[in-house]
Amino acid sequence: MAWTPVCTKEDLVENSGVCALVAGQQVAIFLLLIEGEQRLFAVGNYDPIGGANVMSRGIPGSIGSRLVVASPLYKQQFDLTTGQCLQQPEYRLPCYAVGLEQGMVSVFTEPLCTEQQASAA
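The chain above was modelled as a monomer; its predicted structure follows.
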């Protein structure tokens, strides 16, 4: 387990997503502007409901205090910090630690939460 550099901060577009390959897995990375502060989030790129690698093309936003990304396929919203689907809680995206150091964005190779944890919750 290690950190994988994936891109520079300049490669990211604020309030949008990009896809990167991390340890053989597609990861969607989002740079969001929240209350004037830029924050990074990383979740699995595979939409378990739509069955396609599209989450990096999803629409980021918020529902109440929860930061979410809406799938571009069927529009279900997934929490960016837990991966949990708000409409269908039996589904969850893996979520990853993501960091910024000296302008380089890195993602931890092992997810913090996984799809399998959703069925146990």
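The CA atoms of residues 1 and 109 lie 6 Å apart.
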